[in-house]
């Protein structure tokens, strides 16, 4: 299988920037353009979302002071004033996850259609869309890495909901309540309660895509995902290709994409990514992760350990379980 050609953007991303731009040879064809333009708008916003999440500091200090001094109205007001705009950001991130899921669904529709005979042809001839698919996965894993290391997110939202509830009981005007009504607050709360909320959104979205598109053989989706995983693995483990990655961010990009497609595959394939019949070389993929500098891929290994569906199945090879311990 001509992996380097099928996914050639993976070794041409080395630009020295955080978000690799679209390479010249992955310009969308006329057939791809409509979907590409829709997804491009979302991906442009994705960069700002990551910047905002990285800069998210939380209102821990204000909340602590308010809790320690429950009768001090000034401190209560200060905590509320600090939390309300942060909740606006958390709402924005959650709403972005819905847009991302819709984009993923559009890309899956294009990359699994019966236009071409196999997934390799799709990836070779629709490189612009394959690149966008990879960028969505890169964003998703990066978002979840940042979220996992920021406990302020859940603390801020919990405080917001508790305070709002108390204000309602006391019939106090709750400025900012219009920002997040009760139903939306429940959905946002569930979203952030997950260790990897964006990945969960995409996994659910991929499962939904497969169940809603019965006319598309499930193999079209799973083969597309397994091919992308294999391409990333080959790019990372082959010295000839790896030597072209002068920028470490490109390596991170490929690693996140590889882990992302493995997790999606594990959700939609009837027996998952870890079974003997899986088209993904899981031992090879885990070895690639383990070969990275210590501590650099802990989040990705944890994603495989804790967010996959079939790792703990009896059918999973014991060696794979030991590798991920």
Automatic annotation (TrEMBL):
It is found in: Membrane. GO terms for cellular component: membrane. The keyword Lipoprotein applies. One of its GO terms (molecular function) is small GTPase binding. Pfam families: CYRIA-B_Rac1-bd. Coiled coil: none annotated. GO terms for biological process: regulation of actin filament polymerization. Residues 25-321 form the CYRIA/CYRIB Rac1 binding domain. InterPro entries: CYRI, CYRIA/CYRIB_Rac1-bd. The keyword Membrane applies. It is a lipid-anchor. Keywords: Lipoprotein, Membrane. This is Family with sequence similarity 49 member Bb. It comes from Gadus morhua. The gene is CYRIB.
């Amino acid at each position: 299988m001509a992996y380097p050609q099928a996914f050639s953007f993976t070794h041409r991303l080395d630009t020295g920037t955080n978000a690799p731009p679209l390479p010249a040879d992955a310009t969308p064809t006329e057939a791809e353009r409509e979907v590409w333009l829709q997804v491009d708008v979302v991906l442009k916003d994705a960069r700002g979302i990551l910047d905002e999440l990285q800069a998210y500091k939380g209102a821990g200090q204000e909340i602590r002071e308010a809790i320690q001094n429950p009768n001090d109205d000034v401190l209560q007001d200060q905590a509320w004033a600090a939390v309300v705009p942060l909740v606006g950001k958390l709402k924005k991130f959650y709403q972005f996850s819905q847009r991302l899921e819709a984009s993923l669904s559009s890309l899956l529709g294009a990359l699994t259609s019966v236009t071409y005979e196999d997934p390799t042809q799709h990836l070779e001839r629709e490189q612009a869309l394959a690149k966008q698919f990879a960028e969505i996965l890169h964003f998703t894993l990066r978002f979840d890495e940042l979220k996992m290391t920021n406990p302020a997110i859940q603390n801020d939202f919990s405080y917001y909901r508790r305070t709002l509830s108390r204000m309602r009981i006391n019939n106090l005007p709750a400025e900012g309540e219009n920002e997040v009504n009760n139903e939306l607050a429940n959905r946002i709360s569930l979203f952030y309660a997950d260790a990897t909320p964006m990945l969960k959104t995409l996994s659910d979205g991929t499962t939904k895509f497969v169940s809603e598109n019965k006319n598309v053989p499930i193999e079209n989706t799973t083969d597309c995902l397994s091919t992308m995983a294999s391409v990333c693995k080959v790019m990372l483990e082959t010295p000839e290709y790896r030597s072209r990655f002068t920028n470490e961010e490109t390596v991170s990009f490929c690693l996140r994409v590889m882990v992302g497609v493995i997790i999606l595959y594990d959700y939609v394939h009837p027996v998952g990514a870890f079974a003997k019949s899986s088209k993904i070389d899981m031992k090879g993929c885990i070895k690639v992760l383990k070969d990275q500098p210590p501590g650099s891929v802990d989040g990705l290994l944890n994603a495989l350990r804790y967010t996959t569906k079939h790792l703990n199945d009896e059918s999973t090879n014991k060696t794979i379980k030991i590798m991920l311990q």
